[in-house]
Amino acid sequence: MLNRVILIGRLTRDPELKYTTNGTAVARFSLAVDRKFNRDETDFIDIVAWRQLAELCANYLGKGRLAAIEGRLQVSTYEGKDGQKRKATEVVADDVRFLDKAPAGSAPSTSFAKREPDPWEELGREVKLEDIDIVRRDDEDDIPF
Q1: Beta strands in 1-145 (DSSP E)
Q2: pTM over 0.70
């Protein structure tokens, strides 16, 4: 089974940071995401981040900032004040990347989740001839054909 969500959009409001009774940080904000084929339609997705990621989002994200969110979809049910059963759908963030230039005075970091190093990250990088060390053996003077 797989439950992964990746979203890119702009924050519709500043993250709201709160702490649980045991001191765990939780930040909630909303992301406006345009639909791929119809730019006139936008989805507004509720995002929740926990612990250190929550504090970093609250400190460095704000309304209008462009961000990529990776996480999982979570659906909760609850009973409203009127006695009706309701559902709330939100994305629980595992990784947040800032995609636009941070305002002056903000931290330059762009990702806050602890991730494994990506062995493919260097793939496709431009290589300059002066970066290549050419090693020749003494017996390779002649062309082998």
Answers
A1: 5-11, 16-19, 25-34, 42-50, 66-79, 85-98
A2: no
